[in-house]
Batch of 4 targets.
Target 1
Amino acid sequence: MSKRIITTAFGLLALAASVVGVGTGVSQARAADQRASSYEIGLLGDMPYGDTGRSQFPAVIADINRHRLAFSAFDGDLKNGKERCDQYQYDNAARDYASFRDPLVYVPGDNEWTDCDRPSNGSYNPSERLALVRKMFAATPTSLGQRKIPLQRQSPDFPENVRWAVGGVTYVGVNVTGSDNNAPQFDAAGKQIDGDAAEYTGRNAANLAWLSESFAQAKAAHSAAVMIVMQANMWAADDPTVHFADTRRELARQAIDFPGQVVIVNGDSHFLNIDKPLTDAAGATIQNVTRVQTFGSDQNHWVSATVDPRDPSVFTFHQHVIAANVPTYVKP
């Protein structure tokens, strides 16, 4: 099969909202200057999974490198959930990330820390694996990749929570993971079988504060949009989602008060999906919020976004399906 790349565009079907400048003339002029041109970014995650994923991931990176991107964002899961959380997995990921020509911003997934206590994963301590992730991928005030961009990290305790801005848009990375956000899980007898209450409580509070601060900064900077990158699918039908309620509520509150577009990027479910799942207290869809769920697992492809702050929708999404990574199908 040829290595032809199949690309399809998806317009962001969000309610158009104009951004009204309320700051000084200097701030407004700077914001207008930042919005003078469009640019492209990449979105991916949940790869490589197993031997097949490791054989296909180089083609994903090579195709990304053929594009001139302001940056790419990786929304977590550097391995699958059945593999061991041994050091070589993180070393392999570091080598992969170093091969991205343009900047790469990494946000953690559950497979590289939350789920590492599984026997199949080596029965590691999840907090120790998270400390390793922070040391390897969040230790500097810059992105990964060969060309780097500066990042603002939340604190020494939560360095994986990041923020950066490009061309009049604010971007935020936050450590919200699958497996119900590492919150305690209990069996029918009330015995705790998974999760860590202290870890979840501290990180959840930090996440909520980071989201609130990031939207405040975006409004002060007259950003046309905010994009939040996380691993968890907070609307998964077949996984526990109780401990994402705080995050959904904070995002709803912030989005309602924000005069521009809001995009939530997540992985975890391994198939491309673009929808509008965030609702207000009455159940109404918050129309300036769009969710983009990236490919992953056995679908080793990626998504790009053309970002144009002059466009009321700001984002237009494109899927990049790598033909060499598409299986041979069996007709029914």
Note: The domain at 5-325 is CATH 3.60.21.10 (Purple Acid Phosphatase; chain A, domain 2).
Target 2
Amino acid sequence: MKTIYLSLLFLLLKTVSCYGQIGINTTLPQAIFHVDGKNDNANTNVTHSQKESNDIVVTNNGNIGIGILNPTNKLEIKTNDSNTGLSLLNASSQSKVLISDKDGNATWSFPERKARTSIYSITGVSSLIGNINNMAKYDKFLDVKIEDVKGIFGDQYGWDIVKQQYIVPIKGIYRISMSIYLESGLLSDYYKIGISKGNNAKQLMPNMPYISIVSEEKDKLAYVTGLAILNKDDILEIKVANQENPNSPVKIIGGPEYSTLLIELVKQIR
């Protein structure tokens, strides 16, 4: 008989659901789960925002509140300080924003920004000897007028005046525009001027427009612009060659009205 009574009691307890609130450091919890960090809430239903600042609650609909007792979002943080009260730290979080993918996963990424680098060449004439397989480097872009890249991504990126290189800060689509003023050469001189990719690369970057011009014994101003997909840490340099007469110099006239370079980040590729 005792066995029967115990079995009935066990079955009865299994069918009973328990409802209640859990309060830690408080005798009057304001939610299903309520932690009062400093035990400074009054023992009444009247609350004070200053005293809520050290509280954490979980409501009956699954919302979590930090510093607030009635959160309306899945996670809601309220603080009286000047910052957000939210800190997500890892090795790549500095100066970045959270970006979500198609599945809602959040990762740190640079905010979408248009970053420009504009450089003028210094006044003077440079004579460069180079052939199509071993092009010469033009190294007179010394007058930086606009440099957004260093301020956004760091001093190691953008235009390096000493090495005369552009270091790509982030993978993306870049617009590269260049004007070059060429002094007259031999009638048959055939000049090529463009962008190489790689440290001390000998040839022009594939699939990127370049200046191609015949001297005809006349001074000429040439301009080219194009788009390229570049990866972070790619290195760009300005290269020149005389394809038809490789032993005859390519003479570039420098100066703000003559030879200029503009590199723009058009769109990041994530």
Note: The first strand starts at residue 22 and ends at 24.
Target 3
Amino acid sequence: MKDQVNDRTDKYGGSLENRYRFSLEIVEAVVNEIGVDKVGMRVSPYASYMEASESNPEALGVYMVNIVNKFGILYLHIIEPRMIKINDKYETPHSLLPMRNAFKGTFIAVGGYNVDNGNKAITNNYSDLVAFGMLFLANLDLPR
């Protein structure tokens, strides 16, 4: 999907619509097979792992949200723009709010959260849920 690595010249390359086409086809096929009430999606429009960056990640994120809204998927699990790689986070002017505001289902934010700022994100309506993947890997008793 990212314009820095997608150099295709067919119907899956070039414009944002074309670059997102394959993901859309997968979502549509899964929804048709198992039902929309069982489908969620995890996306990372800001991530640049392996030099796979996007020149306009906010536009990509909002576009993705608007497309999956048409299907009514159950949730969107999205990685914070402040995350570069595991254990590295940085300050950024970017935010998930444009995607949060556009998405109609359950919005799950992930990336660099602890209990305090995770609770704050929910209280401030930044997210419906917050994921704590790495914390659970280190401490299976985290909820206690």
Note: Strands lie at 40-43, 75-79, 83-85, 88-89, 106-110, 129-131.
Target 4
Amino acid sequence: MNQTSPLFSPLACLCALGLVACGPEPAQSNEPFGILNDSFPLLVHGWDGAQFTIETVPRRILPLNAGAVDALVALTGPERLVALPSLAAEYSTFPADAEAWLSLPQFSEISAAAILAFEPDLVIGHEWQAKSAAAYLRQAGVAVLILPMPTTFDDVSREIDILGRVIDASSEATALLTQLERRRAALRTGAEKRSFVRVLGYSNYGTGGWAAGADTTCDITISLAGMRNAARDVGLENFNEIDYELLLRLDPDLILVEVEEGGVAGPTESLLLGEAPLKGLSALSTGGLVRLPRRLNSTTSLRMLDAAERLADAADKWLEDAALAASREPQRLRD
């Protein structure tokens, strides 16, 4: 990109076009997270407490992570984005005709300078990302919407509603939310038969195992599918390092593992199947490994519902297989 003079900077262009309200760092407010009025200019209260104005409909949107990309893919088209985070190709879910999305410029550095180079009029990120960059961007006059990490799927729904209003896609957001609720209802319909099944989200890349407890997106996925999180059941919160002894003591019915592109077994699955001390895990002898692609296993977005549907389908098959095996047991004993 050509260098610009101070009189013709990206910031100057944004201010001149009236896309953002330029000036000092936005005031902090005690208003609840959300949008405080119904039409542009929108007065927005971010989750981080910053209150700012979006003067006109954003046309140059820049998402900072794969979860934000997932939401935007569901609500709008690639023509309204100026760039994607480089990990989106691996961690986000795109439509079948993804070429227009994946041909967007990509960035790997989250810094104010790198972001300003794309001349965005709206930046969307989550609470765990570079707060210093967000503060600098706001001082430069760029609207930065910071979203909270979801702790329930209702949080995801609220995020979709807010994003729909912020990017002037409220009708799309309403239709999407209706569709998501229909899918959640379908999961609830079959949840009772799965309610006793204990699931563990587990990862191990050879340097130690980790389990996903309460307040993780994996926990939300398991809950959506109508099952119990084995790590939550023993009081584990967030991500916890667990040794083989605890893993064997938990002995979950199903273990969620990540698979590589094309369904190739990942390091966690290979380790579970190859470690002699773990042969006693019930899930290994009953077909209880549930394989999720990275974009679903690591998602923080509405795609948790995709993951939950896959988990529910796998659990239903596991239950059917277990019932079939049990029905054959009396015959085996007679023989």
Note: DSSP finds 15 helices and 14 strands in the chain.
